[in-house]
Write a structure and sequence with these properties.
- There is one protein chain.
- It contains nine helices and nine strands.
- Strand 1 and strand 2 (about 15-25) form a beta hairpin.
- The protein is of the alpha/beta class.
- The strands form two sheets. A six-stranded mixed beta sheet has the order 5-6-7-3-8-9, with helices on both faces. It has a three-stranded antiparallel beta sheet with strand order 2-1-4, covered by helices on one side.
């Protein structure tokens, strides 16, 4: 579904991601882990086309309309006066476009998605009046309506209560069972071990990528910590023609 070929992404010519090569298989369920500043969010934004590579390339085998991206909650402005049902209905965009009509079939899909995330009765509530957990359920409902082939989630469980986290994990497993490709940035290693069969560990460069049990090992975790401790934001400018390192 997604192939990274010697990918480097830079901010002011200093690498946020450094020569990453690998691929996310179609239908895979992958956690992206690493310490703060390791390039996890940068990777999702680059796959989505929101950032341009400084070197290498990203190949995504899905049209933009079949991709769904959920940024961190802190990046979303909830002050716009929108009702829950209207927000979830935005998931119909790929089917109807800017000027198309949301027909009865799509409205049924919207209502089913609201029910699936446990927000029936909230349809006429303003999104700005919801708790963080309720709002995250709205965003997951919108993705349910969209029915994307590729789903990118940036820290979807951050500051969520355990009940909301469990409900959203159930939806992620449903997407995986239906053959949709899911890539999620996460911080909870125990959660990753239990729910995500594939893991990509980043420390601006690739530390390890593959089966979760083989990635979440103490040597890999120690190497990621060592790389994070060695970061120097004033380091020499990255040259993208440097060959990639082979992960340990």
């Amino acid at each position: 579904m997604v192939k990274l070929d010697n990918l480097t992404v830079s901010y002011r010519q200093h690498p946020a991601l450094h020569h990453i090569t690998g691929q996310f298989a179609q239908g895979s369920l992958t956690a992206v882990i690493g310490s703060n500043g390791s390039g996890k969010s940068t990777l999702l934004k680059t796959i989505m086309g929101l950032l341009r590579p400084a070197g290498g390339r990203v190949q995504v085998h899905a049209p933009r309309a079949r991709m769904a991206y959920l940024p961190q909650l802190a990046e979303i402005d909830r002050s716009f006066p929108m009702l829950v049902r209207d927000c979830v209905s935005l998931g119909c965009w790929s089917a109807v476009g800017a000027w198309g009509k949301v027909n009865a079939t799509l409205l049924d899909r919207v209502d089913a998605a609201i029910h699936a995330v446990g927000l029936e009765g909230f349809e006429q509530r303003a999104v700005g009046s919801l708790s963080s957990g309720q709002f995250q359920r709205v965003l997951f409902a919108r993705m349910l309506v969209q029915q994307a082939d590729l789903i990118l989630l940036d820290e979807p469980f951050n500051a969520m209560d355990s009940r909301t986290t469990a409900a959203l994990l159930d939806l992620i497993h449903q997407w995986h069972a239906q053959g949709q490709t899911v890539i999620a940035v996460l911080h909870d290693d125990a959660q990753v071990r239990k729910h995500f069969p594939q893991t990509l560990m980043l420390a601006r460069e690739l530390v390890a990528w593959g089966d979760t049990a083989q990635v979440l090992t103490e040597p890999h975790l120690q190497r990621a910590r060592a790389l994070a401790e060695a970061w120097d934001d004033q380091a020499e400018i990255c040259h993208t023609d440097v060959p990639p390192r082979v992960p340990a």
